[in-house]
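Hypothesis: this fold can be encoded by more than one sequence.
Test: take the structure tokens below, design a sequence, compare later.
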């Protein structure tokens, strides 16, 4: 089901101050999409999720789910959470420690007075889906963190919602388990015809899981796009910087040439991906560390060739992280661990114009 959010604002009042948690949010979350709300702490992600669920009342605007208005200030509509047909998975799994796995998963059906044989059938099917069959009688507390998370997922899915919402569901897991559970979750959601709204401040999680990402800051949606669009082709400096490590270099637009935009910068004249920007305007050149390519003599004629000196070099396993000094700029580069380089070495590198991105200042 599609979710439409129109002109939604939400204010909190604390210690005599007004906090604008959501500031005129407009968003369409397509049906059967894994849609992530990503942004720094306090940007309003959870508030927006809670407004969709119905746990918070916005101060302005309208929210509809699958074409039905569930909240409207102007029309005075407020559908209670339990009537919105949603499933929800929280950060703290919120599974009940005094119940076994079966009862935890069965609970949403029991409170709806679903017949017992239907409950048994649906719980079994859902536990099979999340690969927890055979765990029915196990007390919920005697499970690993990842298994508890799957119980929470099963409980959210058992009533067959059309929309499922996740609020930082993996943040209590350790790094390795988080990665595994993320993959599982992606696979589970891929098999379901369901709209998933996922809140996280973890950019890797957002990139790995989502069909689309909305990046938020200070109660506003800054940019929406596919993970690749957001990572490789963001329009805003804040988004480019938040989604991954980036070198941001001040630049002035000098010319349009052969489908590229040329800028002057502290790295010299750099050919970039085309952007519709006025000649002479200021912009920020964004270069990801993995797109800085060290070259040896034979590639000296390449375009976007820059000379610098390695200031620091740190081995991080799959690569060296080097800081390369070019005039006043210090660039972070990820370079081949086999490279025979040392701190203090003069180096030349190229920047592929396709990966030189101009973002708004
Ligand atoms: P995090 O990633 O830290 O969970 P978030 O992006 O989910 O953050 P929200 O929890 O939506 O952010 O909070 C948005 C803003 O509203 C913050 O400034 C927060 O302090 C404030 N806020 C949230 N809940 C309340 C409340 N009940 N009373 C007062 N202010 C609140």
């Amino acid at each position: 089901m599609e979710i439409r959010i129109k002109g939604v604002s939400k204010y909190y009042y604390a210690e005599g101050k007004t906090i604008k948690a959501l500031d005129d949010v407009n968003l369409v979350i397509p049906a059967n999409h894994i849609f992530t709300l990503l942004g720094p702490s306090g940007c309003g992600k959870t508030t927006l999720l809670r407004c969709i669920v119905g746990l918070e009342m916005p101060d302005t605007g309208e929210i509809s789910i699958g074409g039905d208005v569930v909240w409207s200030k102007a029309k005075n509509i407020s559908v209670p959470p339990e009537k919105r047909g949603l499933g929800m998975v929280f950060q703290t799994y919120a599974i009940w420690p005094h119940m076994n796995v079966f009862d935890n998963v069965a609970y949403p059906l029991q409170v709806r007075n679903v017949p017992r044989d239907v409950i048994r059938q649906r719980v079994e099917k859902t536990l099979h889906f999340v690969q927890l069959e055979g765990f029915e009688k196990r007390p919920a507390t005697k499970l690993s963190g990842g298994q508890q998370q799957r119980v929470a997922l099963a409980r959210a899915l058992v009533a067959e919602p059309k929309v499922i919402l996740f609020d930082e569901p993996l943040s209590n897991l350790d790094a390795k388990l988080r990665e595994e559970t993320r993959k599982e979750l992606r696979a589970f959601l891929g098999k379901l015809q369901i709209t998933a709204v996922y809140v996280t401040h973890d950019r890797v999680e957002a990139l790995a899981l989502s069909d689309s990402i909305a990046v938020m800051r200070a109660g506003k949606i800054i940019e929406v796009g596919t993970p690749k669009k957001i990572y490789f082709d963001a329009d805003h400096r804040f988004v480019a910087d938040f989604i991954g490590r980036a070198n941001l270099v001040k630049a002035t637009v000098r010319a349009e040439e052969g489908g590229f935009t040329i800028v002057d910068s502290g790295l010299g004249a750099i050919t970039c991906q085309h952007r519709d920007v006025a000649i002479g305007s200021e912009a920020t050149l964004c270069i990801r560390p993995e797109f800085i390519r060290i070259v040896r003599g034979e590639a000296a004629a390449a375009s976007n060739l820059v000379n610098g000196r390695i200031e620091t070099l740190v081995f991080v396993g799959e690569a060296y992280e080097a800081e390369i000094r070019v005039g006043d700029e210090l660039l972070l580069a990820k370079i081949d661990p086999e490279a025979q380089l040392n701190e203090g070495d003069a180096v030349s590198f190229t920047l592929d114009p396709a990966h030189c991105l101009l973002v708004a200042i």
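The mean pLDDT is 90. The chain has two domains: 3-238, 246-359.
Hypothesis status: open.
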